[in-house]
Design a protein that fits this description.
With 172 residues, this protein is of the alpha/beta class. It is built from five helices and nine strands, in the order E-H-H-E-E-E-E-E-E-H-E-H-E-H.
């Protein structure tokens, strides 16, 4: 298993960082449902990722790209064919139930940072985005969503209503 060094705390403790930073109604509902906050077996990644990492040595024509925002150590994988395995960088609406419609996953540590990471990945012109919640997404549709999301987040930030987890794990 590979993991980014910035997420070692949760790997080693077996607990997600709390409190969660919901991105919308689904995240707020999940944050209140304590039965979803389970502890898992702690683990130590076999491969520690600290930056962009070529996967050729592992027999894969791809590279790991740090995409912080969902968590500090979030990563995506870009294949040489242009497929972007985006994980929780983006999702399908309603936790993957509305297929093909871009949306935030239920939580992000840093919504603006996540959006910046998403835009950096879109600038690499992927052919498809494969996500953790729902079906793959078309890049052009995700670009249009990202433009709307930028406006929404900017308004929330200007109003002081954009919770973000600081580097120490505290909110700011």
């Amino acid at each position: 298993m590979a993991g980014h060094v910035a997420d070692l705390g949760p790997y080693r403790s077996g607990r997600a960082r709390e409190p969660y930073r919901p991105t919308g109604p689904m995240g707020r509902l999940m944050a209140r449902h304590k039965n979803l906050h389970i502890r898992v077996e702690p683990l130590e990644p076999d491969v520690l990722v600290t930056g962009e990492t070529d996967l050729e040595d592992f027999g894969v024509s791809a590279r790991i790209m740090p995409t912080p925002g969902h968590t500090a150590g979030s990563i995506s994988v870009l294949t040489d064919r242009g497929d972007l395995v985006a994980g929780d960088l983006i999702a399908n609406s309603f936790f993957g139930l509305l297929r093909g419609r871009p949306a935030n996953p239920p939580f992000h540590d840093d919504p603006l940072g996540n959006l910046a990471s998403l835009r950096e990945m879109l600038a690499l012109n992927p052919t498809r985005l494969h996500v953790g919640h729902g079906t793959s997404l078309e890049p052009d549709r995700v670009r249009r969503w990202a433009d709307r999301e930028h406006g929404r987040l900017s308004r929330r930030e200007a109003a002081g209503r954009l919770p973000v987890r600081g580097e120490s794990g505290a909110s700011r």
